Amino acid sequence: MHRDARSLLVRIAGTLLAAAVLAGVFVLYTRPTFLVTLIDQMWSCF
User: Fold this and answer.
1) For the whole model, what pTM was predicted?
2) CB 7 within 8 Å of CB 13
3) How far is the C-alpha of 26 from the C-alpha of 30, rounded, in Å?
4) In terms of residue numbers, what domain contains 19?
5) What is the DSSP letter of 44?
6) What phi, psi does 30 have (nearest 5°)?
């Protein structure tokens, strides 16, 4: 495998991984109970 092809595969894999992480975060933010829990945890820091 050429260096350019490997570089392209790494770039594609990184992009897919980033998209999966962003999709997971989006799914969590669509759940109201998650948001309430997150806000409660942040508020307890103060």
Assistant:
1) 0.63
2) no
3) 6
4) 3-44
5) H
6) -85, -5
CB atoms within 10 A of CB 24: 10
Q: Are 27 and 21 in contact (CB under 8 A)?
A: no
Q: At 9, list the tokens.
A: 């595969």
C-alpha span between 13 and 10 (Å, rounded): 5
Which pLDDT tens digits describe the chain residue by residue (46 residues)?
678 889 999 999 999 999 999 999 899 888 889 889 989 999 998 8
Contacts of 34 by beta carbon, 8 Å cutoff, 6+ apart: 28
Which amino acid is it at 7? S
Look at the chain and report how many structural domains it folds into. 1
